[in-house]
Amino acid sequence: MAKCFNLELLLYKFRQFKNKKRKQGTNDRIKTLYKSILFLIFGIINIFFSFPQYVIAQENKHETIKLQLRWDNQFQFAGYYASEWKGYYREEGLNVEILPALKSDGTILSATKEVSEGRADFGIGAADILIANDNGADLKVTAVIFQQSAARFYLKTETPYSFIADLANLKIARNVNDLIDIELQAALINEGIDPKKIKAYHHSPRLDNLVSDEVQVVPGYKLSLPFIANDLGLNLKEIKLSNYGVDFYGDSLFVNGKLVKKNPDVVEKFVRASLRGWEYALTHTEEIAYKIDKELINALKIDKNLEFNLYQAKIIKELTLYPIVEIGHINPYRWEKMHSFLNQIGLVKKDLNVDTFIFNPNRVKAERDKNIKRFFVWALLLILFLLIIIFIWIYFLKKLVNMRTKELKENEARFRSVFQNTNDTICVLKQGIVFLANNSFTTMFGYTPKEFYGRSVIELTTPEFRELITNNIRKRFNKEKVQDFYDIIGIRKDGTLFNVEAKVSVFEQEGETYTIAIMRDVTESKKSKEELKKEKDKAERMSITKSEFIANMSHELRTPLNVNIAAIQLFESYIKNTLYIDKEKIAKHLKAMSQNCFRLLRLVNNLIDTTKIDAGFYEPHFGNCDIISVIENIALSVADYAKQKHINLIFDTDTEELMMLCDVDMIERIMLNIISNAIKFTYDCVDIDIYNKGDIVVIRIKDNGIGIETENQSIIFERYKQVENLFTRQNEGTGIGLALTKSLVEMHGGNIRVESEPGKGSSFIIELPIKQNISEEVEVPRVIDDSYKDKLIEKMNVEFSDIYKTIEK
Ligand code: ADP
Fold first, then answer.
1. How many CB atoms lie within 10 A of CB 132?
2. Own/partner pairs for 487-491, CB < 8 Å, 24+ apart?
């Protein structure tokens, strides 16, 4: 039950919450959800669209670019210095750091390694770029500066040499697989000579071996070796490998593939500025050579540095083929061919994709645009997919919400109907104030629940319970244990009172303590309980009475029989012994015998009549007669007998004659029974009055005897009831008389009651309705002749038999 209340309270709270939110409603909430999701989606789209702008903004940032050279600072790299000095890089928004490869400690950095490992962005290389890529690097060629390779083989002028095949017979100094050696191998392969068959002699960069004739041929770059030889006074002739179909590119500018992907614009800017620098350097060779000599620090200390740079400028002009060939020009076929040579000598194994190997800004940009477009397409598809998922999700969510709402409503309706339709009054209280109540509240208290909301529960009960309830509310609030059952009196709205049983329980919710009171109107059940108790008491009393009656009856039957048997035995002994028979004694015994016979007769008559009445067989014989004379005759007849007991019996009436419908025999039974009781219990006086009260006639038999206790006054009319106990009583009797009398009075449509005061006497008052049967002839009052007298005396003897004196006829 308490659970049910909890639920009801929850429902109530939920209702309150819903009322607040009602304006919004489930659909509105879902609309809000839709809006939020759309907002989110548009947010995402916005991010997608601003992404390319972000990328471009990133690209436009002032970048710092590192360029790794392949040797010490010298005219070989003049274009890059020129670009820096002339501010071409700055114009492109670039900060450029030019890093020489030769360190002061003599170590030489590999440009391909530095760039591929991310320590530099750009580098200068040639065939080594292809080798590095084959080994896993991601390098792109952006511009070729030296259209011809600077790699040469040198021999003394006098050394005989005509064809490359002559080399097989000469001692060649080799650094196997260095860039110059690669070109040599390529030339040998082209001529059908296996490079492995050419012995590699030790190579000394300072040409000592050549001077001492240890070797006849030495490799070297045209950029420096002739200058050194000239310095040594050596006359050398050169073998140019391009004459043997080996057309390798010389210095080329390459870039890390990651930078191309990340920022192709920066790459393009750097290449553009570098080529501008080269154009400048090649057209202003002396100025740049002079600046290189003056401003750049060299790890390699060269004596005639200016001359050296000027020498280099001259050679580089040749190698770049400028201005015949556009500076930076790339022929992809030449790179493929270089790759093919490298492949033949086993230095590269993978295929070359020349399209991706050569940096093409337009292609990269197109690729980037394509990627952005693809990104957008995928993003849109993803958004579309997400939207579909979200809308499906919302659709099912909406369905679920509707379903749950329906279930909730059904449950609410079910619980409401249980709550409202239960017969018990249920009310929920918060600190004694009615918070919630069901419809039965109206039925029980007359208030509608709404009328009583917010009012104190103590108003529902009578003042004597209010203090108890108030104290208990306080105690319960303080978490003290108090009674949970109340048997109180309730007050309805109209002020009427009724019995209430209340069962109280407590529950807590959200920190609040609530009391549930289940109240029941127990007025009817209380009444029936009381009646049941009365009936039970009555039945118990009856049971006791019956036991008493049986004991009484045994006594009443046995006493006269014993007396008669004793008399009979006496007579038998008289006859047996033929003794003198004392007539007086015999008469006395016979009198006793007859009195006891009358007692038995009275008892039997009473029992039979009672049984007859119970069974509905007692037939009254109503006739019109003068009730005054009937009562007066009885009074006169009894007066003689009363006198014997020294009792004064006085008759009084206010009416001479009163004809009414009655059964004279019954009236006689009624009167004789009451008068015999009066004589039995009085001290000296019995008054019999009869008064005409118009509608009724009132007969009153009054004595001044022992009287009857108030509590016994109502029970003497019950069957078998005697006030005195069998063993303590002073007078005989079975307790049937007054019950029978009452039945007879009621058969006349009248009633009988007693007014009595213990010690002062009793009055039995009979009220009979005055009815007359006009259709019948008026019955002539009985003549008070001897036979009537005899009959009456006989009746008196029977009725008075338990007073022990028989009236003489
Ligand atoms: P019974 O048939 O044995 O006489 P009743 O029904 O006539 O019994 O009387 C029942 C009881 O009522 C008597 O035993 C007696 O205790 C009491 N009673 C009746 N009349 C009187 C009276 N006038 N004064 C005192 N007690 C009376």
1. 22
2. 487/522, 488/461, 488/462, 489/461, 489/462, 489/464, 489/465, 490/444, 490/445, 490/460, 490/461, 490/462, 490/519, 490/521, 491/445, 491/459, 491/460, 491/461, 491/462
Please tell me the predicted confidence (pLDDT) of residue 26: 55
Omega cis (within 30) before 323: yes
DSSP readout, 543-578? HHHHHHHHHHHHHHHHHHHHHHHHHHHHHHHHHHHT
DSSP category for residue 783: P
**Residue 432, Cα to own-chain centre: how many angstroms?**
28
pLDDT band at 125 (very low <50, low <70, confident <90, very high): very high
CB 701 within 8 A of CB 686: yes
| Non-local CB neighbours of 703 within 8 Å, separated by 6+ positions | 678, 679, 681, 682, 685, 686, 687, 761, 762, 763
What are 548's two structure tokens?
């008493």
The residue whose CA is least distant from atom 2 of ligand 1 is: 737
Nearest CA to ligand 1 atom 14: 722
Angle, CA of 582, 585 and 587, to the nearest 5°: 105
Residues with a CB atom less than 6 Å from ligand 1: 673, 677-678, 681, 703, 705-706, 708, 716, 721-724, 733-739, 762
pLDDT in tens, 272-330: 999 999 999 999 999 999 999 999 998 888 889 999 999 999 999 999 999 999 999 99
Q: What is the pTM of this model?
A: 0.47
Name the strand (E) or helix (H) holding 12: helix 2-22
Distance 737 CA to ligand 1 centre (A): 8
What is the distance in A from the centroid of ligand 1 to the CA of 738? 7
Q: Name the CA radius of gyration of the chain, rounded.
A: 73
Other beta carbons less than 10 A from residue 155's beta carbon:
21
Contacts 24+ apart (CB under 8 A), 162-171: 163/191, 164/188, 164/191, 164/193, 164/239, 164/244, 165/191, 165/193, 167/193, 167/198, 167/217, 167/239, 168/193, 168/197, 168/198, 170/216, 170/217, 171/199, 171/201, 171/214, 171/215, 171/216, 171/217
- CB-facing half-sphere around the CA of 312: CA atoms within 13 A: 24
What is the residue with the minimal CA distance to atom 11 of ligand 1? 722
Residue 541 has pLDDT above 90, yes or no: no
Cα–Cα dist 376/357, whole Å: 27
DSSP-derived letter for residue 443 is H
Give 544's contacts (C-beta < 8 A, 6+ positions apart): none
Percent share of the chain, pLDDT over 70: 88
More confident position, 91 or 641:
91
| pLDDT value for 284 | 96
**CA 753 – ligand 1 centroid, Å:** 13
726 pLDDT tier (thresholds 50, 70, 90): very low
Q: What angle do CA 748, 752, 753 make, to 5 degrees?
A: 170
Judged by DSSP in three states, 603 sits in helix
As beta bridge partners, residue 255 has: 122, 140
Please tell me whether residue 689 adopts helix, strand or coil conformation: strand
Q: Do the beta carbons of residue 667 and residue 631 sit within 8 Å?
A: yes
Q: Is 220 in contact with 236 (CB distance < 8 Å)?
A: no
